[in-house]
Amino acid sequence: MSMMLDKLHQEHINITKLIDVLEKQINSYQENGSINLQLIRDISDYIIHYPDLYHHPKEDLVFELLRHKDKQIEPVINRLLNDHKILYESATSLSRELNRLKDSSNAEILVKQLKNYIALSRSHMDVEEAILFPRAKELLTENDWQQVETGFNYVEDPVFGKVIYKQYENILNSIIDDETG
Ligand SMILES: [Fe+2]
Ligand SMILES: [Fe+2]
Fold it and tell me: How far is the CA of 56 from the centre of ligand 1 (A)?
């Protein structure tokens, strides 16, 4: 498998961990009204500053290269490209709602937005993993992958990379809590 495809797949695993943390927060709010707004702020900030800036644009390039090689897959590609826009808009409106909320007493709108975000993000990654990545693996050449690779400056992931940004340490702790308990 191309190294780029490996990396995109690993990023899906990472995003899934964050989505699981968000889902736990929703459950906690629905069970006992408690929700960690700061943790959700950190995660949405990360999503806007890493996956939205580096994961989706890399995929966009893969999709564009694939579009020319497999006409049948075009509707799927168009859906996924559109999802990227909606996911970005949803993450920014999440962040607006988080700025508006002073405490957790009135988090209904936030919880609704989170639920929609989680559902779209999961179904989006499922389609990429089930349809797009296998086709890309099959049809893209070394040259194509090189093109995707050189289209981007390498940027280390601030949560899942080698150096964890101080502002995101809580996110990582919450994932570790999630995995150990
Ligand atoms: Fe995507
Ligand atoms: Fe993706």
Answer: 5
Extents of the domains making up the chain: 3-180
Arithmetic mean of pLDDT, 155-179: 88
| Alpha carbons 179 and 173: distance in angstroms, whole number | 10
Query: Residue 91: CB partners within 8 Å, gap ≥ 6?
Result: 44, 47, 48, 52, 117
What's the 103 CA to ligand 1 centre distance in angstroms? 32
pTM above 0.90, yes or no: yes
Distance from Cα 56 to the centre of ligand 2, integer Å: 6
Model confidence over 60-108: pLDDT tens digits? 999 999 999 999 999 999 999 999 999 999 999 999 999 999 888 889 9
Rounded to whole angstroms, the Cα distance separating 147 from 139 reads 14
Say if residue 20's pLDDT is above 60.
Answer: yes
Q: How many CA atoms, within 13 angstroms, populate the side-chain half-sphere of residue 147? A: 13
Top CATH class of 3-180 equals mainly alpha
